[in-house]
Design brief:
The complex is a heterodimer of chains A (532) and B (287). Chain A is an alpha+beta fold. Chain A is 32% helix and 20% strand. Chain A has 16 helices and 20 strands. The longest helix of chain A is centred in the N-terminal third of the chain and has 23 residues. Chain B has a single domain, classed as MetI-like (MetI-like fold), CATH 1.10.3720.10.
Chain lengths: 532, 287
C-alpha cells in the first residue's frame, strides 16, 4: 500500500514537473497566435503593444487621459511638438501668425483634415472643440484664457486675454485634442472621442484598460498601414519584458533598466531611445510633518541620488538636480542646489532643529515630540519608481526618519496627487509637455495650481510665473524659467530624483513606433508590421 | 538515554527530519550570530553583486547582503507560519469539538460557516481578505487563518462524532461527569494526535501561502526580509541576476520539504498503526 502510494506520488511529481516545464516554453503556441498569428492567415496587420501606462477613460479632459487619445493614435492636435521641442502645424498649417502683442493668433486648418466619421474639419469645428475644453475641463485656464475664438472657413482666430507668446506650444498639448463635438459625447469616456487620428477605438475596457484601435478608413493624411493595434496594460515590469521575449507583444513602451540589456545587440529587436522632458518628482506635502522646511532640506540632502542612478538604475537615468531635465537648456549646470548631497549636514540640521529619537524606537520625533511616519505613495507602472522609493525609505531610516511606502496603480496615484492624500509621492512627469515648462510649473507649483496639492505658495515664484506667461522673447523666457527653478530649489519644494531616458523596444519586423521627447506620439499612419 | 536511543532506532526518519527542522529553527533563532552582514544595511554602491567570498549569496537590488537576508527571512517565515498553524489548529479544533459534541443549531451554524469558507478557492479569498485588511504580515496571517480553520473544524468534528458513541464516553456520562470534563479529558486527548499530525504537515503549506501573499504584495512589506517578498523583488532581475530568486526560492523549498517530511514521519510516530482509518475530511454520513 505504502509503495503504491509512493510510486503514485513519484508519477504525479513527474507529471507536474513536465507541466511546469511546458509552461516555461516559448509562447509561440496559443497565446501568441491569438494576438497576431491568427490574423496572419488573412495577412491583416495587427500589432500588440505592451505598456505600463494607461488611462482611466478615453475622455481627453479627464485627468491626463488626453495623452492616450494622442498616444493611441485616435486624436490629434492643431500643432505638434518636434523632437527638438520646437512646434509645427499638424491639423493646422505651418503658417500660423500672431499680432505684435501676442494676443491674436491666426491658424489655417488643413483643407483635407477630417474626422474619422468622415466629417471635414472646419475652423468652426476646431473652435467648438477648443471651447469644449474650456467649458468642461478643469485645467484649461492653466494653459491660456481665450477672450474669443473665431472661425471663418478654414481660418481660426484665437484672441487671448493676456499675451500668449507660446500659444502654438500649448495647443500641442493633448489636452487640446481636436474632437468632433457635434456627435453624442455622453459615452466618450468608454467609447472614445471621434478624432482625426489614423486610428479609431474598437474597444476599451475600463477595468483592464486594454484598448484596441483599428485603422481609420477615412484618415485624411493618407493610407494607414496597420489594421489594428492592441494596447495591453500591465504595471508589472517583468510581464512586459517576458511578453516581448515570448512574442506576445510586438512592442513594449519603456522596458525597464534591468531588462533592456537583454534586447540590446539582438537582431530580433529594435530599441528606440530618447531623452525626454521627464523628471522623476518626489513631491513633499507641506500640509504635514514636511511643512517644516528644515525637515525637507534634511531629507533632500540625505539622498544619494547619484548612487541611485549609477548603481540601482544601471546608469539609464541622469541624476536629478532641478525641475527641468539636463536634456533641456534650462540651467541644469548653472543653477545652485542648496540641497546637494550632504548626509552629515542633514543629520546636523535635524539635531540642531530638535528632531531626536525620544522613545528609543530608532526613529526621530518632531521637536514637539510627535512621531513621524511619512507615507510615500508610488506606482510601479514605471520601472524606476519602486527603486527610488525603497532606496529613499532605506536611506532615510538611517537618518532616523520613518518612511512607509504605499503602492497604487498609476491612475490612483495621479488622483492622490491631485487631492493631496500623501506625505511624499513619487511621479514621473513630462515637465516639457508643451515643449516649454510654463504650463507644468503653473499646474504643479503656482499658488492654486490644479496639482499643487502640497501647500506650496511663494509670491516670488508666482511673480516670475506671471511674467513668464506674457514674455515672448525666448532668451528672457529661459532666464525667467531658470529664476523660477532656482526659487523652487531654494524653497526645498520637491525632490528631483532623476531624468529618465525613454525607450520603445519593438520586434524588428515592426516599424513606425516612435519614442519622442514629448512622449505622447507613439503610433502613426506609418506604424507597420511585416507579416510573413 | 537508553530510551532515546531506542526511539531513534525505531524512528530514524523522524529523527533526521526533526534534526533538520531543528537546524532551520536554529538558523532563525540564532540568525544574528550566523549572518555576515546586517540584513537591512543597504550599501547602494554594492547593488546586485553576484555571489562571491564577500557576499556568499550576492547582494540584492539595494546592495543588501542576500545570505544575511535569507537567514533573517527564516525568522519572519517560520514565526508567521508557526503562529498561523497554532491559530487555525486551536480555533478549528475548538469549534469542531463544540460542533461535533453539541450538534443541533451550534453544529449547523459552525459547519455552514465553514461550508461558505470552503466554497471559495482559499487563496483567492485570502487575497480578498488581505486586500481589505491592508497589506502587512499580521493581516496576511489573519487572512489565511480565516480561510484555513475549516479543515481542522471538520476534522475535529468528524473525530468527535466517531468517539462520542464509544462506550467510555457513555460510561463517563452515566457516572455523571460534567460536559467540560468529558470534552477536556476524553475527547480532546483522542482528537489531538490526528490534529497535531495535520498541523505539522500544514506548516509547510502555510509557509508557502504566506510567501505567496508576500510575493503578491499582500504580506510582508519592504524592507522586511521575507522569502516571498524577496522572490518578488528579484523577479525583475530574473535574467540579469538570477541569484536574487534562486536563494530565497531554495530557502522556501528546503524549509517546506523539511517540515512536510517531518509532519509525515510524525504521523508514523504518533499513530503507529499501519492500517489507520483515514480521518474523514468531507461530510460524514451521520451529519
Amino acid at each position: 500500500m505504502k509503495s503504491t502510494r509512493k510510486i503514485l506520488a513519484l508519477l504525479l511529481c513527474l507529471a507536474m514537473s513536465g507541466g511546469l516545464l511546458a509552461g516555461c516554453g516559448k509562447g509561440d503556441g496559443k497565446t501568441a497566435d491569438s494576438s497576431d498569428g491568427a490574423s496572419h492567415t488573412e495577412q491583416s496587420k495587427n500589432i500588440v503593444i505592451g505598456t505600463g501606462q494607461s488611462c482611466g477613460s478615453l475622455d481627453p479632459l479627464q485627468s491626463y487621459d488626453g495623452w492616450y487619445t494622442v498616444r493611441f493614435g485616435i486624436g490629434q492636435t492643431l500643432t505638434k511638438l518636434n523632437d527638438d521641442f520646437s512646434v509645427s502645424g499638424w491639423l493646422a498649417e505651418d503658417d500660423y501668425t500672431v499680432n505684435e502683442d501676442n494676443t491674436v493668433w491666426t491658424f489655417t486648418i488643413r483643407e483635407n483634415a477630417a474626422f474619422s466619421n468622415g466629417t471635414r474639419l472646419t475652423a468652426e469645428l476646431a473652435k467648438a472643440s477648443l471651447e469644449y475644453v474650456f467649458e468642461n475641463g478643469t485645467r484649461g485656464a492653466e494653459y491660456f484664457t481665450p477672450a474669443s475664438i473665431e472661425a471663418e472657413g478654414q481660418t481660426l482666430t484665437i484672441t487671448t486675454e493676456k499675451p500668449e507668446p507660446i500659444l502654438p506650444n500649448k495647443l500641442a498639448d493633448p489636452y487640446f485634442t481636436i474632437i468632433d463635438t457635434t456627435v453624442d459625447l455622453s459615452s466618450m469616456a468608454d467609447e472614445g472621442p471621434v478624432g482625426t487620428g489614423p486610428f479609431v477605438v474598437k474597444s476599451f475596457d475600463p477595468v483592464t484598460k486594454e484598448t484596441v484601435v483599428v485603422k481609420n478608413e477615412n484618415y485624411w493624411g493618407g493610407e494607414v498601414l496597420a489594421d489594428q493595434i492592441t494596447f495591453l496594460y500591465t504595471e508589472d515590469q517583468s510581464t512586459l519584458t517576458m511578453g516581448l521575449q515570448s512574442g506576445d507583444f510586438d512592442a513594449v513602451y519603456n522596458v525597464s533598466m534591468t531588462s533592456i540589456r537583454d534586447f540590446e545587440n539582438n537582431e530580433d529587436f529594435t530599441i528606440v531611445r530618447t531623452a525626454s522632458g521627464r523628471t522623476a518628482h518626489g513631491f513633499m506635502n507641506q500640509n504635514g510633518a514636511l511643512g517644516d522646511e528644515t525637515l525637507r532640506q534634511a531629507v533632500m540632502r540625505y539622498l544619494n541620488k547619484a548612487s541611485y542612478c549609477a548603481d540601482l538604475l544601471n546608469g539609464e537615468y541622469v541624476v536629478g538636480k532641478t525641475l527641468l531635465t539636463s536634456a533641456s537648456a534650462y540651467g541644469y549646470e548653472e543653477l545652485t542646489d542648496i540641497n546637494a548631497y550632504d548626509p552629515e549636514g542633514a543629520e546636523r540640521l535635524l539635531d540642531e532643529a530638535g528632531y531626536a529619537d525620544i522613545d528609543g524606537d530608532g526613529f526621530r520625533e518632531t521637536p514637539d515630540g510627535e512621531k513621524i511616519n511619512l507615507r510615500f505613495v508610488y506606482y510601479t507602472g514605471r520601472p524606476e519608481q519602486q527603486i527610488l522609493v525603497e532606496a529613499t525609505q532605506l536611506e532615510l531610516a538611517r537618518l532616523g526618519i520613518r518612511v512607509t511606502p504605499e503602492v497604487h496603480d498609476t491612475q490612483t496615484v495621479i488622483d492622490m496627487l491631485g487631492s493631496g492624500d500623501y506625505d511624499m509621492l513619487c511621479m514621473s512627469i513630462n515637465a516639457l509637455n508643451c515643449g516649454d515648462p510654463e504650463n507644468h510649473m503653473t499646474t504643479y507649483f503656482k499658488t492654486g495650481g490644479s496639482y499643487n496639492s502640497f501647500g506650496y505658495s511663494s509670491e516670488a515664484f508666482d511673480a516670475v510665473m506671471d511674467e513668464l506667461t506674457v514674455t515672448a522673447d525666448p532668451d528672457r523666457r529661459v532666464q525667467l524659467v531658470k529664476e523660477a527653478e532656482q526659487i523652487l530649489m531654494d524653497d526645498s519644494v520637491c525632490i528631483y530624483y532623476c531624468y529618465p531616458v525613454m525607450n520603445f523596444v519593438t520586434k524588428s519586423n515592426v516599424s513606425g513606433i516612435t519614442s519622442t521627447p514629448a512622449d505622447f506620439y507613439w503610433v502613426s499612419e506609418n506604424t507597420d508590421i511585416q507579416v510573413s | 538515554m537508553e530510551k532515546l536511543k531506542r526511539f531513534v532506532r525505531k524512528n530514524p526518519a523522524f529523527t533526521v527530519f526533526f534534526l533538520l527542522a531543528l537546524c532551520v529553527i536554529g538558523a532563525a533563532v540564532f540568525a544574528p550570530a550566523l549572518v555576515t552582514h546586517d540584513p537591512y544595511e543597504a550599501v547602494l554602491a554594492d547593488a546586485v553583486q553576484p555571489p562571491g567570498p564577500e557576499h556568499w549569496f550576492g547582494t540584492d537590488r539595494m546592495g543588501r547582503d542576500l545570505f544575511s537576508r535569507v537567514i533573517y527571512g527564516a525568522r519572519t517565515s517560520l514565526s508567521a507560519s508557526l503562529a498561523l498553524v497554532c491559530i487555525i489548529m486551536t480555533a478549528g479544533t475548538i469549534l469542531g469539538i463544540l460542533a461535533g459534541w453539541f450538534g443541533g443549531i451550534l453544529d449547523a451554524v459552525i459547519m455552514r460557516i465553514s461550508d461558505m469558507m470552503i466554497s471559495f478557492p482559499g487563496m483567492v479569498l485570502a487575497l480578498a481578505v488581505a486586500g481589505i485588511l491592508g497589506a502587512s504580515m499580521k493581516n496576511a496571517v489573519l487572512a489565511i487563518a480565516v480561510v484555513s480553520w475549516t479543515k481542522y473544524a471538520r476534522l475535529a468534528r468528524s473525530l468527535v462524532l466517531k468517539i462520542r458513541e464509544r462506550d467510555y464516553i457513555a460510561a463517563a456520562r452515566v457516572t455523571g461527569s460534567r460536559t467540560s470534563h468529558i470534552l477536556w479529558s476524553y475527547l480532546l486527548p483522542n482528537v489531538l494526535p490526528t490534529i497535531l499530525i495535520t498541523g505539522a504537515t500544514d506548516i509547510g503549506s502555510m509557509m508557502m501561502e504566506i510567501a505567496a501573499l508576500s510575493f503578491l504584495g499582500f504580506g510582508a512589506q519592504a524592507p522586511t526580509a521575507e522569502w516571498g517578498l524577496m522572490l518578488n523583488e528579484g523577479r525583475a532581475y530574473m535574467t540579469a541576476a538570477p541569484w536574487l530568486m534562486v536563494f530565497p526560492g531554495l530557502a522556501i523549498f528546503i524549509t517546506v520539504v523539511v517540515f512536510n517530511l517531518l509532519g509525515d514521519s510524525l504521523r508514523d510516530v504518533l499513530d503507529p498503526r499501519e492500517e489507520r482509518q483515514e480521518p474523514g475530511l468531507g461530510r460524514k454520513e451521520n451529519e
